[in-house]
Amino acid sequence: MADNQSITELVIYTDGACSPNPGPGGWGAVIIKDDSILSELSGWAQSSTNNRMELTGAVEALKSLQERSRIKLYTDSIYLKNGITDWVNKWQINNWRTADRKEVKNADLWRQLLIQIDRHEVQWHWVKGHSSDRFNVRADELAVAARKGGGERKADSHTTKLRADHIHLFTGVTYKHAAGVGGWSVILNWRSHVKILGDGCAGVSANQLYLTAVINGLNSLKKELPVVVHTHSGYLYDGATTWLSGWKKRNWRTREGGEVSNKKLWLDLDRLMNRYQVSFYLEDKEVPYCFLQEAKELAREFEQDFSCR
Predict the structure, then answer these.
(1) Average pLDDT of adjacent 10-residue blocks, the chain of 309 residues
(2) What CATH number should be reported for the domain whose range is 8-148?
(3) Which one of the listed residues 60, 140, 297, 301 is annotated catalytic?
(4) Annotation marks residue 15 as catalytic
(5) Which residue out of 121, 130, 133, 199 is catalytically annotated?
(6) Predicted local distance difference test score (pLDDT) of residue 2
(7) Catalytic, out of 76, 268, 283, 301
(8) Catalytic residue status for 140
(9) Which pLDDT does position 287 carry in this prediction?
(10) Taking the model in full, what pTM does it have?
(11) 49: CB partners within 8 A, 6+ apart
(12) Active site includes 54?
């Protein structure tokens, strides 16, 4: 075994990019020693997903090291960070099956990553993506350049930019109509701080799960700052930005005179919207924020855990 006194100490930043998702992808890695860049790595895949590219970046960075090293590895992927520090232990016990007995997604890469971290001493850290951290920015540049290297691609774009003076709330929902079981997740991001909430539910609809996610996210806030809700739910977006004012004028009745569906949840959301300055954005599914993708993955995990209770 290597002498701990002489073991090489490194810092690694990795990132992945995929647009559209799934579609052409790229990964990048920056290896640092003594605060200076030792090497940069990148690669491209013709057909991939954002999560696979995040995993590949970490795998390839660790594979590139010839000697056992003590590493601080930084990623802006909650999927990668939580997967390797928490979920993977459960998956191994369950023979690479999820809580509802389905095959774990990207199991091939998770297995490769386990082999690599067994060679090294790795501490995992999450860093906010696209922030002022120059090494994270560089890893992202490498991943995006590699993705575009396979041919000219549509530039990434979003409906709204993340603002440091706002709390950003990202919703994710999964729902199985046949079983009537679903999961919700919300990721709250303010500057470099991240909070994750979620749960599984039975006897509810996807629309109710989206409302539940936002309500729980807003109820958890400790700071009264402006809030931006990012979602793929047209029901949530239209309800909060258009329908809500009409429902209130008609005493919570539809134009046809019937009672508003999910009235109790809308009442709770309306109360919170009166407390906080809340904006809603319906995001493009073809070029989603990483947090929206990860909220979806987290919702699936909560759903699977609930199914096995």
Answers:
(1) 68 92 90 88 89 96 92 96 94 88 91 93 91 87 83 38 83 84 93 90 92 97 92 91 92 90 96 94 73 89 79
(2) 3.30.420.10
(3) 140
(4) yes
(5) 130
(6) 44
(7) 76
(8) yes
(9) 60
(10) 0.55
(11) 18, 21, 22, 25
(12) yes
**What per-residue confidence (pLDDT) applies to 154?**
35
Structure confidence at residue 171 (pLDDT): 96
CATH topology identical between 8-148 and 167-307:
yes
Choose among 220, 83, 57: nearest CA to 141.
Answer: 57
* Among 25, 26, 43, 54, the one annotated catalytic: 54
State whether CATH 3.30.420.10 applies to domain 167-307. yes
Matching residue, tokens 């920056």: 30
**Where do the structural domains in the chain lie, given as residue ranges?**
8-148, 167-307
